[in-house]
Design goal:
186 residues; OB fold (Dihydrolipoamide Acetyltransferase, E2P); five-stranded mixed β-barrel; two-stranded antiparallel sheet; 24% strand
Length: 186
C-alpha cells in the first residue's frame, strides 16, 4: 500500500479554498451577501397598484398586505429630530415618501412567506427599481437586520447616513426601540 504524503495537504487545501473563493466572487448567482430572495426560483409574485400604509407596508385593493423585506421605517406616529434639533413627524414623512414613490404605479412584489401578522414579506419593484432599496437610499427607513443584510443595502444605508439625508439628518430612535418603548408605556 502506498503511503500518502501529508506535506502536500496544506497546499492542496489552500488551493481548493482559493478556487472556491474565486468561483464564489465571479458568479453573481452564488455570490455571498446578495439578496437571496431575488435569485430564488420558488418565489411567488403579487402585482398591482398598491397603497402605502406606512413607511414599510403596502396594501393592494383586495386587502392583502405587504411588509417590505429588509427595511424598517419609523412608526407612523414616531417623531425624530432634524439637523437643527427640531422635532418632526418622521413616521408620517416616511409613509408620505412611500406613498409618493408608489402612487398609481404598477408594482411587482416577490415573496416567499408571510409574517406573523399574515403580511407577505416582499421585495417590491416598479419596473427594475427596487422600492425597498429606494426607502433606504433616501433615508426614509433603516436596515431591519444588519446581520442578514446584503452588501448593496448596507452600502445604500451608509450613503444615506454619510449624506445626512432623511432620518440621518439628525437624531432618532430606531423603529424597533420606539416600538419597545411604546409597548412598555401602554
Amino acid at each position: 500500500m502506498k503511503k500518502i504524503h501529508f506535506k502536500y495537504l496544506p497546499i492542496l487545501l489552500i488551493a481548493i479554498l482559493i478556487l472556491l473563493w474565486v468561483v464564489d466572487i465571479s458568479n453573481p448567482k452564488i455570490r455571498k451577501n446578495t439578496l437571496k430572495i431575488e435569485n430564488n426560483k420558488n418565489l411567488q409574485e403579487i402585482s398591482g397598484i398598491f397603497t402605502a400604509i406606512d413607511g414599510d407596508s403596502l396594501r393592494i385593493k383586495n386587502g392583502q398586505e405587504i411588509r417590505l423585506l429588509e427595511i424598517d421605517a419609523p412608526e407612523y406616529n414616531q417623531t425624530c429630530f432634524d439637523k437643527n434639533d427640531k422635532e418632526y413627524g418622521c413616521g408620517r414623512i416616511s409613509a408620505k415618501f412611500l406613498k409618493k414613490l408608489t402612487k398609481n404605479i404598477q408594482l411587482t412584489c416577490k415573496y416567499r412567506k408571510k409574517d406573523i401578522y399574515d403580511r407577505y414579506l416582499a421585495i417590491c419593484f416598479a419596473g427594475d427599481k427596487n422600492i425597498n432599496y429606494q426607502m433606504i437610499k433616501n433615508g426614509m427607513a433603516i436596515i431591519y437586520n444588519i446581520h442578514n443584510a446584503s452588501d448593496e443595502i448596507k452600502s445604500l444605508e451608509k450613503q444615506a447616513r454619510n449624506g445626512r439625508v432623511g432620518l440621518w439628518q439628525g437624531k432618532f430612535l430606531t423603529p424597533k426601540e420606539f416600538r419597545k418603548i411604546s409597548k412598555n408605556e401602554k
